[in-house]
Specification:
mainly alpha, two-stranded antiparallel sheet, 2 strands
Length: 110
Amino acid sequence: MGDLEGTSWIERSLTQIGRDARPAEVERISAALNAAGERLTSQWAGQADLSAVAHRKSCLRWVTAVGVDGALAEAMYEALCDAADNVCAIDVETTLGVAQGSRGEGGDRQ
């Protein structure tokens, strides 16, 4: 499993598009993302998960705020959205199964 709290997702993103993924570059981007995240959190807190469009827009705003180009921003967004590597999505399959199982013939149960 990946480590989105660490830097492996940044390294994978760089490697995916054939960029320099040496530790110094990964750490530089990580530090910039952490600083940008602290600045931007109050601006888009609570909005990122309202829809897929809002999520994508918020994530891309975050990664491009540190000066990465479009190709790297897209690779980073893909890494962030990969449920297999996202500690926040560990229970997605179980949660969706429960949610789908709670629907009866007549619609959602309450």
